[in-house]
Specification:
Amidase signature (AS) enzymes; about 475 residues; single chain; globular; 11-stranded mixed β-sheet
Length: about 475
């Protein structure tokens, strides 16, 4: 049963929200070994489900998400609940307000089941950089599930939630969605409010949905998208308030060779086979070129390092973080607080970001990065004038063993080589499973023009239908 069909069945009283919630809670217990959740709100979820069922029985109106179980990444604020960012430094932080996306989910009667595990402060592509232990891949627990929104992807893949939210700075939704075999979508920058998101890179971050199917992703994005006065980057356009897939016949699908360079040969072959199925469905294939995509990794990481180091300044033990000994000199007190509360990867990114934004070095590093970012963005705009969407592999490799790349951060950074471009350009991009290799899912990624999520969803739905996945 598709996610939208499940929602309609609950609204009509054919199924109960309580039964759906109980099923998901059982799945949470069954899959504890995958470490997908940091906190679970089982009792509250059941109470909410009973309330929805009572309203349905009375014939009262219910929201778009009525009875659907939703999991949220632990960097999204839920009033009265912990927002840990999977970090020791925020282990006891309780959010005093709801994020805008949480308000919208509650308003549409979605049932929030818990906060999910993630790479600490969203710094990672594996799901293993967490103070609460690594999340694990549902297809093989010895492998990484992808990051940083690891727990959200695992929760949807294993039936612990119908839908989930993650945040995507350079692929943090699409990477785990691909590795876990579910649909993941990063909307246009500004399509969804970031109010209540504990940010990593303010010009790159975007909240987006996970779902078992494209229809579920469209439903959740329709719920959370739109203008918010508390986030001045948001906007409300027709495409952002009524997402739908069209027919792929007659669409022009762009192929950029730069996204296949460095990709595992087996993955490239599977993506090629899926592309041919899109052609058989009536799509026209068009060659495009985005030369600067080869430099997406340095452009992304230098931008993110700079913005992340700035965002982390507030964790000084005085405003946020572990308590600081106020009798000590300020610099020493803050240093000790961060040494105890932050993981190694977080410290690395703060140090690099601080270095490249120093007056002596900013022109050589950060200023050049901004120029390169502008160039890459323009190349995407030019390429998307020739086609309706651009398809690529989502990840250049299959999931690796837990701990395998932790000693060499550069190897982990390279995992973002195919996903980071969409964040740099601010355009929508999503992934859906199109094949398997040795029992592990392979995701196809789809990019579209700014505010043209519908074209991306159309291609993703065609991938879902034509590959039988």
């Amino acid at each position: 049963m598709k996610t939208t069909e499940l929602a309609q069945a609950i609204k009509k009283g054919e199924l109960t929200a309580q039964a759906n919630a109980e099923e998901k809670i059982k799945a949470v217990e069954k899959n504890k070994h995958l470490n997908a959740f940091i906190d679970v709100y089982a009792e509250e979820a059941l109470e909410k489900a009973k309330e929805i069922d009572a309203r349905v029985k009375k014939g009262e109106e219910t929201g778009m998400l009525a009875g659907l179980i939703v999991a949220l990444k632990s960097n999204i604020c839920i009033k009265g609940k912990r927002a840990t960012c999977a970090s020791k430094i925020l282990e006891n932080y309780v959010a005093p307000y709801n994020a805008t996306v949480v308000e919208k989910i509650i308003a549409e009667d979605g049932i929030i089941i818990g906060s999910t595990n993630m790479d600490e402060f969203a710094c990672g592509s594996a799901g293993t950089y967490s103070a609460f232990g690594p999340a694990r891949n549902p297809h093989n627990p010895e492998l990484v599930p992808g990051g940083s929104s690891s727990g959200s992807a695992v929760a949807v893949a294993t039936g612990m939630a119908d839908l989930a939210l993650g945040s995507d700075t350079g692929g943090s939704i699409r990477c785990p969605a691909s590795f876990c075999g579910v649909v993941g979508f990063k909307p246009t920058y500004g399509a969804v409010s970031r109010y209540g998101l504990i940010d990593m890179g303010m010009s790159l971050d975007q909240i987006g949905p996970f779902a078992r199917d494209v229809e579920g992703a469209m439903l959740l994005l329709t719920t959370i998208a739109g203008k918010d006065a508390r986030d001045q980057q948001t906007s409300a356009t027709p495409s952002q308030l009524a997402f739908e897939a069209k027919k792929i016949k007659g669409m022009k699908i762009g192929l950029a060779k730069e996204f296949f360079e460095g990709t595992d040969k087996q993955i490239a072959l599977k993506i090629g086979e899926a592309i041919q199925k899109l052609k058989e469905a009536g799509a026209e294939l068009v060659e495009v070129s985005i030369p600067s995509a080869r430099y997406a990794v340095p452009i992304y990481f230098l931008t993110m390092f700079a913005e992340f180091s700035s965002a982390m300044q507030k964790y000084d033990g005085l405003r946020y973080g572990l308590p600081t000994d106020v009798t000590m000199p300020l610099a020493k007190a803050v240093s000790e607080e961060r040494a105890q509360g932050l993981g190694r990867e977080i410290k690395r990114r703060i140090m690099v970001g601080t270095f490249i934004t120093m007056k002596e070095y900013s022109e050589a590093w950060y200023a050049k990065t901004l120029k390169a970012r502008t160039k890459l963005k323009k190349e995407f705009e030019t390429a998307l004038e020739k086609c309706d969407a651009i398809v690529t592999p989502t990840m250049p490799c299959l999931p690796w063993k837990i701990g395998e790349k932790m000693s060499n951060p550069v190897e982990m950074y390279m995992a973002d080589m195919l996903t980071a471009s969409a964040n740099i350009a601010g355009i929508p991009a999503g992934t859906a499973k199109c094949a398997e290799i040795n029992g592990l899912p392979v995701g196809m990624q789809v990019h579209a023009k700014k505010n043209d999520e519908n074209n991306a969803f159309t291609v993703l739905q065609a991938v879902q239908e034509r590959t039988g996945k």
